[in-house]
Amino acid sequence: MSGPGFKKAGDNLFKIALLPGDGIGPEIVAEAVKVLQAVGKRYGHQMEFEEGLIGGAALDQGGEGLPRETLELCRQSDAVLMGAVGGPKWDHLPGSKRPEAALLGIRKGLGLFANLRPARVFPALTGASSLKREVVDGIDLVVVRELTGGIYFGQPKGREGDRAVDTMAYSIPEIERIARVAFELAMKRQGRVTSVDKANVLETSRLWREVVLRIKDEYPKVRLEHMYVDNCAMQLIRNPRQFDVILTGNMFGDILSDEAAMLTGSLGMLPSASLGEGTLGLYEPVHGSAPDITGKGTANPLATILSAAMLLRYSLDLEDEGAKVEWAVGTVLDQGYRTPDIAEEGCVPVGTKEMGDLIVRAIQS
Ligand code: NAD
Question: 44: CA distance to ligand 1 center in Å?
């Protein structure tokens, strides 16, 4: 791979920017690339990959955590696949200079305002959840979280004498665009949206409800219900199968997406997508750079491989191909293969590369 900037695109050429980052990032991204290449070969799509620097890897080259060339590379691509950033080597740096600051930068730089976090339980892994098997069996939901507004960004914000202030604010256009993401997604899934707010207390939530209700008219086939966030937190534990798409704001989504994800039991299995107005999206595992296992060849690549499945579906509009990757993951797990983080009695232990190879083989089958 040469410097930033892709070669001239042909008609059937998908350009994918790779940002492996730090720690286990390069190990797991390499496996996801193998999987994408196998998909390309099987279904006749040409895929071109170009690597960019981000996080500590970029800082070590003497630059910024998010170099301008990296952002440019992403903007010129159809989709971005990222590993993870950060690690002890850079922990002494002040907040704004740390590798993790690049994450906010890239989302902002690419105009990504919607974060999609699926929680799906693979039948072979129902035992990994801390909840009872009969509660988690068959969970298949997605949390759609607004990413760039709400209380994390509202002004005024700060300290004033003995007070501290954060402001929760949402505008109608901000709510409209995230609502459309959720309804569009529901159309491709089971056709149900649960909009989560705190409309009994918050004015921003009352506006949220009004706007979501209005946007629903554009999607007559989708069923919409509203739920208070405290109830939703409870329902996710009591009966998570009732949910298809959960639509919510920044802070509620931050909390609920972690809660929903943990229903499935393992950090090494959780993918995510961040989307903006167009089809360009950023896909990454939910977990971090796992410095404790870096270089050991034991990291679970499945969260990144499942992120690649989302990439196929949402940025490249390759629904069948995305489903095939998810099917391959389920099949390999059913066959008993496990990386150490999801190991259980009687399983066949494998490392990062073997797991990638097994998924590739399943795709070829
Ligand atoms: P982490 O997610 O990196 O690791 C937590 C635990 O889960 C560790 O024991 C790790 O070995 C394990 N783990 C994580 N991913 C795994 C995988 N694919 N396979 C097997 N085991 C896995 O969280 P942390 O230790 O709190 O953070 C480490 C670094 O990652 C920090 O610098 C943090 O800031 C950064 N981080 C980055 C991101 C990101 O890039 N999006 C997200 C979270 C944390």
Answer: 35
Both tokens assigned to 286: 């939910």
Phi, psi angle pair for 337, to nearest 5°: -75, 135
Question: 329 CB contacts (<8 Å, ≥6 apart)?
Answer: 122, 302, 305, 306, 309, 359
Q: Kindly list the distances between the CA atom of residue 336 and the CA atoms of 39, 96, 296, 329, 342, in Å, as whole numbers in the listed order.
A: 23, 43, 21, 11, 10
Which atom of ligand 1 is least distant from the CA of 21?
A: 40
Q: Which atom of ligand 1 lies at the shortest distance from residue 284's CA?
A: 41
Pocket test for ligand 1, best of 28, 54, 267 (most atoms within 8 A of CB): 267
* Residues designated as active site: 152, 198, 230, 254, 258
Q: Please say whether the beta carbons of 112 and 278 come within 8 A.
A: no
Amino acid 348 reads: V
Q: CA 41 to CA 35: how far, in whole Å?
A: 10
Contact 64, 93 (CB under 8 A): no
pLDDT digit string, tens, across residues 54-93? 999 999 998 899 999 999 999 999 999 999 999 999 999 9
Q: Is the pTM of this model over 0.70?
A: yes
Q: How far is the CA of 292 from the centre of ligand 1 (A)?
A: 9
Bridge partners (DSSP) of residue 47 are 14
**Model pLDDT for residues 87-122, shown as the tens digit of each residue:** 999 999 988 889 999 998 999 899 999 999 999 999
Question: How far apart (Å, rounded) are the C-alpha atoms in residues 66 and 86?
Answer: 12
Residues 134, 136, 140, 146, CA torsion sign: positive
Distance from the alpha carbon of residue 334 to the mean position of ligand 1, in angstroms: 26
At 187, the amino acid letter reads M
Position 363, amino acid: I
Question: Could you give the CA distance from residue 228 to residue 197 in angstroms, rounded to a whole number?
Answer: 5
Two structure tokens written together for 242: 């009732």
For residues 165 and 274, is the Cβ–Cβ distance under 8 A? Answer: no
- Name the strand (E) or helix (H) holding 79: strand 79-84
Beta-bridge mates of residue 199: none
